[in-house]
Amino acid sequence: MFDPATRMLNLDDDRYTENTRAAYPISFIDNAAPGGVGGHPKNIIMLTADAFGVLPPIARLSPQAAMYHFLSGYTAKVAGTEKGVTEPSATFSTCFGAPFLPLPPSFYARMLGDKIATHKSRVWLVNTGWSGGPYGTGHRMKIAYTRAMIAAALSGALDHVAYEKDRLFNLDVPAVCPGVPADVLQPRNTWTHPAEYDVQAGKLAKMFVDNFKNFEADVSPEVRAAGPKA
Length: 230
Description:
Elements: E1 2-3, E2 8-9, E3 43-48, E4 58-61, H1 63-72, E5 74-77, E6 89-92, H2 105-119, E7 122-127, E8 130-131, E9 139-140, H3 143-155, E10 163-166, E11 171-174, H4 182-185, H5 194-212, H6 221-224
């Protein structure tokens, strides 16, 4: 908010939102690239926040699965970042930025798939949401675990470990990750009552399937088959 008394922006003012942003000249960053263009990424990380507490905290995505999850854009609206939101709720925002897409979503998905294929990038789905239960029962994923998983992905530490297939969500989940308990990597193991996990997981999988009907006609059979199973 603009403070009339000081005639300056007060970035600590949360009267309208806690999700405050500021802009400043790129020259303020010592190691910035003046051209604003970097190299092609070796790793692409898609962040989600699963309020159901059923998605694994990290999963490796095939190029087809990357396109599927890019189009789905699943995450949760969280209090403090969305006006009027008091508790997390599941949402699908196409390409993780639906309001800002001037072209059909499938155009961006194909572009992503082409870039991944050309530059051999590895793609990861990282869930910073709930573990051990849904919102209200479980708890947010520990930041230390998320940092450890991302560090392992970027360093290549997850390139040579065993993976387990999550049959419902069709995801490849590492069996081990440095700095992260093995149980945390398998969400069902963190729930006190695994049968309740199965119910919640089924609900979310159906939400994925129903939402992706919007894109089925514009993607290949391989992309359609890369998502969760109802």
